[in-house]
């Protein structure tokens, strides 16, 4: 109680001292409870009694993994407690408990969950009498000692789930608390993007076998993909409670890969998605094909039996995806080529009973000739750019059991993205834009890299009813490169043709051009940063049925100016009646989010010394005399006032260009967003392997970064549709007047946004037992914010009016989402199952499409009923998807099994529209444009129609 009150004090230093004191008091007064499990391994713990209920000290505990031969031994302490931590989750375990004068007790077929401590309590009886065993926290049943919530998918569930293209990052969507961040089709990043709770799409951390899978440069998705068939277990943790987790608003996806065993095992998979039988894209005007051929395989076994094991896995995807071109200058279909190669290898070596070593390497190489359907609609093939991504990871982990009470776990990892993102024009050329007709040519390119080195060391101590874990996690990152992803300067220029002219470029003349733009200046940047953290976690079993969980984390990101990032954690788990059937749980935690390093591109590339776009119109000085780009920036040209980005806290640098003191609210620091997350819920075992979870989450995030124009003109009040203030009039009201070779809009990412999330999450699951498995997940939630987290360049209606003026539903406010997944084993080795999802539509922002207030930013919202409407007042349509499958197994021999499966995605071909046109128009009549609210094209905005996927798998 004392500790909880201190969490809400304002002083971070006081909070740190108070919480450390609470942990210290716990160490002194609550000796107890064994070592907790790491994020990639499990723990077996428990207590040994005699028939009278007295503790049995010095009882021998022997554990063996049947699949790998791993063996560990320990003894119980004076309280009868024991713990065997850091156990691989591959394989099943046999536990043997013995003590002089008692019958030896053997517990078999124990299956572990990563990050969870399974409890095996044994009551020993004299020789020849039956002993009693209580098992809690294995892959079945409830978790009685942690407030952690979320879902877990084991190997059997992963293999039986139909996933479009077998993308690992699609699996978290089986949890209804996870929502698509945009269209869930085949993204150019080779991943599905999503959000958890009320967070942004960059706010989920990936953990792979206890090491980071995050990309510090862009934080959009997993750094290096892992082949689907190499996954042993995947967990989605909406509230990553343990203090070892950080760098986001709370969500974590924890991936555990397979290990080799004493038996050689292999599998090969052929997957195909043929063209010609699928439905067309819901918004396409012509038939479009989406054809995929994918090969994958895994092989594992012993190098030295019971000692050293290997596993190798690979996956290759060959996909051709069409997009429809509607431009009258070249209507038709453009076929984008997507190719991806994944490789994964792992070697596990048991040095001794108390020391083990794991080495892992993997890479992900992919390219896409039509990323995000950039060619399509009015964009012709000459405007195409090829996206490339080549990432590599190598990790080394060592675990040492120093004594029955002490354990040390060390991880080192190198991650290389070279490139992490690359965009290369298919045919670098000058761009020609025919407004409303066509876009041809492209000269914008980008080559960006990210190199990360991680060192992580964790030491754990256990005694009786208490466990304490402490560690350090440090990552050094070097990232950056040339230009931006989709943006960047037009190196070879861009000509905008006058309206109404529709002739080929070969017949075009300079007299028919209304505007010319060309980029000049520095487009290179580099960021070096450290992300390091100290963390401690203390779990105290105050009673046999009540566990108190305390944690503390201090983190620092040198890219920002935040140096008081103290993150306390407090939680509890109450096992009602002590029967491991009903558990009440709750938690409160603070998180500090990492700011992506590519944010620096805003002020380094778009700042006073970065590149700039030189734009001129006919009749102005330096306007080209032909349809050729300028060889260099004209020496006699004068730049018109520019729009620039600036970094907070950079007054000394900016003062050489203008007086920063004149800007409106220029911040002196760039801080990390700050989240408070509270949960309360109940988990109930219903019998026959059914478990029900019901949890409420409240999340408050403040100091969200948002772009704010610090040199905006004065407020322009509008009460009638169509009102416009000219740019020249607006410029006269700016703090810093725009002048030639000067600046107009001066924008900074300011820590001024706030987001509230309330959610009720319900999960009903039945663990697989012979013939049936089910996960039914439903979430009701409401997300309200005044700035979108991780949504770039979402500007307010007026930078002078923030806070309550911008408060509204988040763009990712999906009020209802339900997902049901499972399968049923039928006679004759047939299996049926699938995934069904139903969700509310997303909001979308509504704008006039005009610069009503004259600030040069097209974020103005229309006037309806005498007032400017609020943010995100549009609401899209509900989405629905039912994807069934049917499969059959064939036993070819004693050691070889063949499985065939047919899957249909979106079998009812429901048009699942994600993005809609929010341009209302600026007519004085107040009537919207005919195009307002209509679906947008491209895989970012619409999910695929009905598609068929066929799979053939052989196991031996």
Uncertain spans, ≥5 residues at pLDDT below 50? Answer: 1-36
Shape category: globular
Oligomer: single chain
Helices, by number, come to: 6
Instruction: Give the biggest beta sheet.
Output: 22 strands, antiparallel, barrel
**Portion in helices:** under 10%
Mean pLDDT metric: 90
In what range is the share of β-strand residues? over 45%
Determine the N-to-C terminus distance.
56 Å
**How many E strands?**
48
Question: Radius of gyration in whole Å, from Cα?
Answer: 30 Å
Structural class of the helices, strands and pairings?
Answer: mainly beta
Summarize the structure.
By secondary structure, the protein is mostly beta strands.
Describe the protein's architecture and organization.
It is a single chain. With 956 residues, the protein is mainly beta. Helix content is 5%, strand content 47%. It contains 6 helices and 48 strands. The protein has a 22-stranded antiparallel beta barrel. A 5-stranded mixed sheet has the order 9-14-15-12-13. A hairpin with a 2-residue loop joins strand 35 and strand 36. The longest helix is centred in the first third of the chain and has 18 residues. The N terminus is likely disordered.
């Amino acid at each position: 109680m004392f500790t909880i009150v201190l969490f809400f004090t304002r002083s971070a230093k006081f909070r740190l001292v108070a919480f450390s004191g609470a942990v210290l008091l716990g160490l002194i007064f609550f000796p107890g409870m064994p070592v907790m499990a790491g994020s990639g391994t499990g723990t077996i713990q428990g207590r040994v009694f005699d028939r009278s209920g007295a503790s049995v000290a010095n009882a021998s505990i022997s554990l063996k993994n049947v699949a790998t031969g791993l063996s560990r031994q320990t003894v119980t302490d004076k309280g009868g407690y024991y713990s065997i931590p850091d156990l691989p989750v591959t394989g099943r375990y046999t536990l043997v408990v013995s003590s002089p004068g008692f019958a030896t007790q053997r517990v078999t077929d124990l299956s572990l969950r990563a990050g969870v401590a399974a409890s095996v309590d044994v009551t020993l009886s004299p020789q020849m009498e039956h002993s009693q065993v209580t098992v809690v926290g294995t892959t079945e049943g409830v978790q009685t000692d942690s407030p952690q919530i979320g879902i877990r998918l084991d190997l059997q569930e992963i293999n039986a789930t139909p996933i479009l293209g077998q993308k690992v990052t699609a699996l978290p969507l089986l949890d209804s608390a996870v929502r698509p961040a945009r269209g869930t089709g085949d993204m150019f990043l080779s991943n599905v993007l999503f959000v958890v709770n009320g967070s942004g799409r960059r706010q989920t951390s990936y953990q792979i076998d206890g090491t980071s899978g995050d990309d510090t440069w862009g934080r959009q998705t997993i750094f290096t993909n892992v082949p689907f068939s190499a996954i042993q277990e995947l967990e989605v943790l909406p509230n990553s409670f343990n203090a070892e987790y950080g760098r986001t608003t709370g969500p974590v996806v924890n991936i555990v890969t397979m290990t080799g065993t004493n038996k050689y095992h292999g599998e090969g998979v052929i997957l195909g998605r043929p063209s010609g039988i699928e439905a067309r894209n819901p918004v396409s005007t012509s038939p479009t094909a989406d054809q995929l051929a994918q090969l994958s395989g895994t092989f594992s076994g012993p190098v030295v039996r019971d000692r050293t094991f290997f596993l190798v896995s690979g996956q290759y995807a060959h996909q051709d995806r069409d997009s429809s071109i509607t431009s009258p200058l070249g209507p038709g279909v453009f076929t984008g080529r997507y190719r991806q190669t994944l490789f994964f290898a792992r070697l596990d070596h048991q040095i001794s009973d108390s020391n083990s070593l794991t080495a892992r390497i993997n890479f992900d190489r992919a390219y896409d000739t039509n990323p995000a359907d950039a060619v399509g609609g009015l964009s012709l093939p000459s405007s195409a750019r090829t996206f490339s991504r080549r990432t590599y990871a190598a990790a080394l982990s060592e675990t040492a059991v120093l004594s029955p009470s002490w354990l040390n776990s060390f991880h080192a990892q190198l991650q290389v993205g070279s490139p992490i993102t690359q965009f290369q024009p298919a045919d670098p050329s000058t761009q020609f834009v025919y407004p409303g007709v066509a876009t041809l040519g492209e000269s914008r390119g980008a080559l960006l890299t990210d190199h990360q080195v991680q060192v992580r060391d964790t030491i754990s101590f256990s005694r009786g009813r208490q466990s304490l874990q402490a560690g350090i996690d440090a990552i050094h990152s070097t990232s950056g490169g040339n230009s931006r992803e989709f943006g960047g300067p037009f190196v070879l220029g861009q000509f905008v043709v006058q309206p109404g002219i529709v002739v080929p470029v070969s017949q075009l003349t300079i007299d028919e051009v209304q505007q010319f733009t060309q980029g000049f200046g520095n487009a290179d940047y580099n960021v070096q940063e450290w992300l390091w953290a100290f963390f401690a976690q203390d779990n105290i079993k105050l009673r046999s049925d009540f566990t108190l969980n305390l944690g503390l984390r201090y983190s620092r990101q040198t890219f920002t100016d935040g140096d008081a990032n103290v993150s306390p954690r407090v939680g509890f788990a109450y096992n009602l009646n002590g029967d491991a059937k009903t558990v009440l749980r709750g938690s409160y935690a603070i998180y500090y989010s990492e700011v992506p390093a590519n944010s620096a591109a805003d002020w380094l590339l778009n700042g006073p010394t970065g590149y700039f776009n030189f734009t001129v119109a006919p009749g102005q000085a330096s306007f080209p005399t032909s349809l050729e780009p300028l060889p260099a920036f004209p020496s006699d040209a004068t730049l018109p006032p520019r729009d620039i980005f600036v970094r907070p806290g950079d007054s000394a640098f900016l003062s050489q260009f203008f007086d920063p003191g004149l800007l409106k609210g220029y911040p002196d620091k760039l801080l990390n967003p700050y989240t408070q997350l509270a949960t309360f819920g109940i988990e109930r075992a219903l019998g026959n392997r059914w478990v029900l979870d019901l949890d409420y989450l409240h999340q408050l995030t403040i100091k969200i970064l948002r772009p704010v124009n610090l040199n905006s003109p004065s407020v322009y009040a509008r009460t009638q549709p169509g009102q416009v203030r000219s740019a020249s009039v607006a410029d006269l009201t700016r703090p810093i007047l725009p002048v030639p070779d000067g600046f107009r809009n001066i924008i900074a990412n300011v820590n001024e946004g706030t987001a509230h999330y309330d959610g009720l999450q319900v999960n009903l699951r039945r663990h697989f037992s012979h013939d049936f498995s089910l996960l039914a997940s439903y979430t009701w939630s409401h997300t309200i914010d005044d700035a979108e987290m991780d949504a770039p360049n979402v500007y307010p209606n007026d930078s002078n009016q923030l806070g309550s003026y911008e408060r509204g539903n988040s763009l990712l406010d999906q009020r209802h989402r339900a997902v049901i997944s499972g399968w049923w084993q039928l006679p004759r080795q047939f299996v049926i199952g699938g995934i069904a999802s139903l969700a509310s539509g997303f909001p979308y922002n509504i704008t006039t499409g005009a610069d009503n207030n004259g600030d040069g930013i097209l974020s103005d919202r229309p006037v309806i009923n005498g007032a400017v409407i609020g943010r995100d007042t549009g609401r899209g349509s509900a989405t629905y998807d039912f994807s069934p499958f049917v499969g059959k197994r064939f036993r070819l021999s004693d050691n070889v099994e063949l499985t065939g499966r047919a899957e249909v995605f979106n079998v009812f071909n429901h048009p699942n529209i994600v993005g809609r046109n929010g341009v209302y128009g600026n007519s004085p009549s107040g009537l919207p444009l005919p195009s307002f609210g209509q679906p947008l094209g491209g895989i970012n905005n619409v999910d695929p129609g009905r598609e068929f996927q066929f799979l053939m798998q052989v196991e031996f």
